Amino acid sequence: MPVAFRTSLAACALFMLAACGGGSPAPVDEAAEAAEQAEDEALGRDTDATVLDDMIQTQDRARGVEDLTLGRKDNLDQALEASGDDTAVDEE
Questions:
Q1: Is residue 47 a contact partner of residue 40, using CB atoms and an 8 Å limit?
Q2: Tens of pLDDT along 36-90?
Q3: Rounded to whole angstroms, what are the CA distances from 21 to 18, 24, 35, 59?
Q4: What 3 state SS string does 13-77 have?
Q5: Structural domains of the chain, count
Q6: Would 68 be classed as within a structural domain?
Q7: Looking at the domain assignment, is residue 32 inside a domain?
Q8: Are 71 and 65 in contact (CB under 8 A)?
Q9: What are the tens digits of pLDDT across the range 15-40?
Q10: What is the dihedral angle through the alpha carbons of 88, 90, 91, 92, rounded to the nearest 10 degrees?
């Protein structure tokens, strides 16, 4: 094998290895990362965004509506009990 061929082959291999080396890592945007984490906590889960995110958000909204409805039902039950107690005292 000629010396020039070996030298050019070695140089090509060296350049390819140098090209495969990673550059500096991309800067981390801490504000965006914190906002994403806050959004996940607001949704009540600790996962990243997925292809099923729309379905998960729909379920989260349904849970919120259910909590609101149950809260209003509790208030209505308490009001009915209070008014029922008042009529029992009035009847005696």
A1: yes
A2: 777 767 666 656 667 788 888 899 999 999 999 999 999 999 999 988 876 554 5
A3: 5, 10, 32, 45
A4: HHHHHHHHCCCCCCCCCHHHHHHHHHHHHHCCCCCCCCCCHHHHHHHHHHHHHHHHHHHHHHHHH
A5: 1
A6: yes
A7: no
A8: no
A9: 888 777 766 666 777 777 888 777 76
A10: 90
- DSSP letter (8 states) at residue 85: H
pTM of the model: 0.37
Whether 71 maps to a domain, the answer reads yes
- Residue 57 counted as domain residue: yes
Residue 56 CB burial class (10 angstroms; 0-12, 13-18, ≥19): middle
Domain that holds residue 72: 49-92
Q: Which two tokens stand for residue 40?
A: 């996940």
